[in-house]
Amino acid sequence: MEAVVSTQSTGDVAEVVEKHRDSQQLWDFLSDNYKFERERLDDVFHYGKFMYDVGNYAIASTNLDFYRNLAPADSKYYSSAQWGKLASEILQQNWDEAMEELERLKDNISAALHLTYSEVLVQRAWLIHWGLFVYFNHPQGRDSIIDVFLHQKPYLNAVQTMCPHILRYITTAVVISKRRRDGIKELIKVLQQESYKDPITEFVESLYVNFDFDEAQAKLKECKTVIENDFFIVGCLDEFTENARLIISEIFCRIHQRIEIDMLADNLNMEPAEAEKWVVNMIRLAHLDAKIDSKNGYVVMGGTSVPVYQKLIDKTKDLHLKANSCCQKIDKKLTLGI
Questions:
Q1: CA within 20 to 30 Å of 136's CA: 7, 202, 233, 333, which one?
Q2: What average pLDDT score do residues 170-186 get?
């Protein structure tokens, strides 16, 4: 074991491992320069796992990555090394590296032709749950939740089949995302198909399906309790509340021609003066055609139209996902020789 550790700690070895991801080139280098034998490779994995078990996640990450770069994809511990590497980065709170590991795992799961459909489904379900640690801590994580869990059919299928409770986190991501329009239509469609319900999903349904503002206000109060007691989204409470109020007021304004500011204040649990400031900000952010009559205490709505550029974005937003799906299908057929 000492020989294995000393080999990895050598500077030029680390440099070669970083530059060359081809396992054969790495084997040639290690064999020629350090007499590293294939029989010792499993020792690298076991040492990495031991370091993980005792809480030394940095060394665990290095060893598991070293093993993964040398071992063939069908080796005994390859899958365990992948998941261990992801877990090590999460426990070190290295969110950029953890995001890269998630993407690498996604690719490897898609390319794992030796797995049955049910095994692939389980792997994707595991990735979804581990991904929550990353997506709710990485700066671009919330948008990634929408892109992966909602827009990529294999993962949406895994959510619906194996873990419908993940809809809570998808819904939260859609509500707080600046790209809400990209996901809300698809989300509503999914929520109406599923039996899973909680205050967060019911809040969205009460607004976009039932247009019941009293129910939405009641569910928003329940959402606070749910979010405060949820490990993954507790840090999103203020952001969720702010965006939820914005959604309520935006939809309310879109379906009424003239609105009393006092009535809107009641819906938002605000004082009238505070609600008026809120409406001004909401009109600016939502690009609504509206005017505020402060003298009479009304918001007067004008005609609204979707800009041409927004229509173009809406029609082309899923093209990259469809292109990636086609590429994956072509790769599989080429691999199978079809």
A1: 202
A2: 88
pLDDT at 61 over 90: yes
Termini Cα distance of the chain = 45
> CB within 8 A of 274, min separation 6: which ones?
265
Give CA–CA dist 58/1, Å, rounded: 18
Q: Which of 35, 67, 28, 29 is nearest to 48 (CA)?
A: 67
CB 60 within 8 A of CB 48: yes
Place of tokens 């959510």: 159
- Is residue 289 within 8 Å of 303, Cβ to Cβ? yes
Q: What is the identity of the amino acid at 103?
A: E
C-alpha–C-alpha distance, residues 74 and 114, integer Å: 9
C-beta atoms surrounding 292 within 10 Å: 16
Torsion of CA 316, 317, 318, 324, to 10 degrees: 100
Name beta bridge partners: 256: none
What type of residue sits at position 32? D
- Decide: pTM greater than 0.70: yes
Q: What is the 3-state secondary structure (H, E, C) of the chain?
A: CHHHHHHHHCHHHHHHHHHCCCHHHHHHHHHHHHCCCHHHHHHHHHHHHHHHHCCCHHHHHHHHHHHHHHCCCCCCCHHHHHHHHHHHHHHCCCHHHHHHHHHHHHHHHHHCCCCCHHHHHHHHHHHHHHHHHHHCCCCCHHHHHHHHHHCCHHHHHHHHHHCHHHHHHHHHHHHHCCCHHHHHHHHHHHHHHCCCCCHHHHHHHHHHCCCCHHHHHHHHHHHHHHHHCCCCCHHHHHHHHHHHHHHHHHHHHHCCCEEEHHHHHHHHCCCHHHHHHHHHHHHHHHCCCEEEECCCCEEEECCCCCCHHHHHHHHHCCHHHHHHHHHHHHHHHHHHCC
Using alpha carbons only, give the angle 323, 328, 331 rounded to the nearest 5 degrees: 125
Q: Does position 323 have pLDDT exceeding 80, yes or no?
A: no
Closest CA to 123 of 158, 150, 156, 72: 158
Q: Which two tokens stand for residue 225?
A: 């309790």
